[in-house]
Amino acid sequence: MTPQEQLTAALARIPYATFLGVRAELKGDELTLVLPYSEHLLGNPLLPALHGGVVGALMELTAITQLAIASKSAKFPKTIDVGFDYLRSGKPVDTFARAKVIKIGRRIANVQAEAWQGERGQPIAAMHGHFLVGDDDAANPKT
Question: Where are the transmembrane segments (predicted)?
Answer without folding.
Answer: none
